[in-house]
Design a protein that fits this description.
The protein has helices at about 5-25, 85-95, 105-115, 145-155, 175-195, 205-220, and strands at about 35-40, 45, 60-65, 100-105, 120, 135, 160, 165-170. The chain is an alpha+beta fold and about 230 residues long. Helix 3 packs across helix 5 (about 175-195).
Amino acid sequence: MSRHDPDELQAARAQLVSYSARLLADGLAVGSAGNISLRAGDIVAITPSGIPYGQMHAADVCLVTLDGAQLPGGAGPAPETPSSETPMHLAVYAATGAAAVVHTHSPEVIALSSARPELPAIHYAITALGGPVRVAPYVRFGSAALAAAAVGALAGRSAVILRNHGAVTYGRDLEQAYDRAVLLEWLARTYRLALSYGEPATLSPAELDEVTAETRRRHYGERRGDPL
């Protein structure tokens, strides 16, 4: 893989525009809230700050190095400003094997974050996120402290909830990272519905381990030809 493959970077920018539109359609963000990034070699393509997703074009997507330096590019005389959460995205890349990161402002997750210390195992599908999802303590958006809080709560997980803010998921590609964001919102909604009936039963660590083992045995959710 080239360090600066123009075709790969252009494809990454186009993907981000496509998935940004889905953020709105799926109710995971409003306006220009939230942000998405995709790693291409040693470059990260990330959505710009302040541009509503419905008006975003591939040329608006910003390019930064893994240490945060912005690269030139785009259709205008100067590149757009990268998302204010770029430090958090870069921290996730540094701490994990992520190839894509999705940061949402989804309502069910935000509501849960204000009232619970974690999203418990209300359904076995939570094993796709590594288990119960922790709520990281509140820290101001765009700060290095928020990046550290998010990474700390991600240990052993592929999702984290940010108190009074939103959520972060990552994956081996943009499709997986996005699907995990959708799953996280569904689990938060399911938990809220369960609470309306009383105190819900949740799955134990042993029960989750059993699900994980059986999922691996069956190669559940993998397409034929996918790497193991």
